[in-house]
Amino acid sequence: MYWGKIVFKNLLLFIIVFLLCSCQRVSLVKTKELSFITDGIPVYYGGWGMFINEEDNTEYIWFADAKEKKKILFFTLEGELKFEIPLNEAMNWRRVGGVAIKSLDTIIVVNFSSRDICDDQLAFIDRNGRCWKRISLNKMIQEEKGGDNYVYVNAGYSFFSGNTVFLRALWASRPQDEDITFADHDAFRSYYYPRKYSSPCILKFDINSQKSDLALSEIWRMICPDTNLFFPTIMYAVENNILFIHSQMDNRLFLYSTENLELEKIVTIKSKYTNIGMPPCTLEDRDSCYQEYPMHGRIIDILYDEYNEFYYFIVMHDIPKEERLFYLEAPFSILMYDKKLKKRGEQSFDGKVYDPGACMLTKEGLLIGYSTSRKDYDPTKARFDVFEVQK
Prior knowledge:
Helix content is 14%, strand content 44%. By secondary structure, it is mostly beta strands. The longest helix is centred in the first third of the chain and has 21 residues, at 2-22. The radius of gyration is 23 Å and the shape is globular. Residues 17-22 have low confidence and may be disordered.
């Protein structure tokens, strides 16, 4: 009887361990290739993404060129070009930060300026490229709330949810200080960064009511409590009604509700291939910090797979000092987390084969774009491999 209980306990322990290990066995398996003839459109100047047209319930892949050809191309998943939308009316002398597509008649183009000008705009166009609304964000918010000047720009291509645009708010200046001059860079840094690191860093803007909310001033010091240290700006993504905030400095994700911008959870991301993050530096070493952080492991993108209920965290690997590869060719991982934000798997990729910045989700699976470093790279095509989740 005694030995029977021992055997039973050991068997039960084995089953528990086996189940725990099994739940980690999630991988990405290549199923096919997709190719879209973009005729040389430099998609880095506007972005790309997936869009479901509710009029015909069809899933499209789109590529936006906001620099040269100034248009958006829409393809079926079979690679057929269905239609184009011109961007000319949506653009002005400002740089285009990104494009978000709510519907064919509500396409949002983010135009951003600079810290000195602070006249960032949202332009809305329809399927014919007609600009039917333009909003000057800083002017509107100043009239509504007063206060300081900000530069508003998207971070990546995931900045729209429902009827709400989320933009990174970078503190620029106080209106009463516009005539101040600085003797040198140190004097400017002493003025600028303490104010930036105590100011809101996210703008929440409802495109219907045009109500805005500047928030999350506390996140700077949550990331780096020492006010005398410098770190590159925060990054964010909006996925599955969650606002993810992160930085290049560490491996934490701060999860906020898109409804009320309340902190819901902090998740620590761990990779088996790389360290994530780098120490902050002094304000005097700011320039060297900018040069160093692309060489360190860091989270660069976040995607949510609604078909499989998985989150994908895309992480660049750190590069050994003796190698110092071109950082865009560095290897990277895709970490897979379930909807409860439990890690289920991780897969590494060669940065000379795949582009970690060219990932998107469709009903076919996860699309990972080809690197421009490949020998078979074709600048007239956007090429992807499609990966399915294997559980």
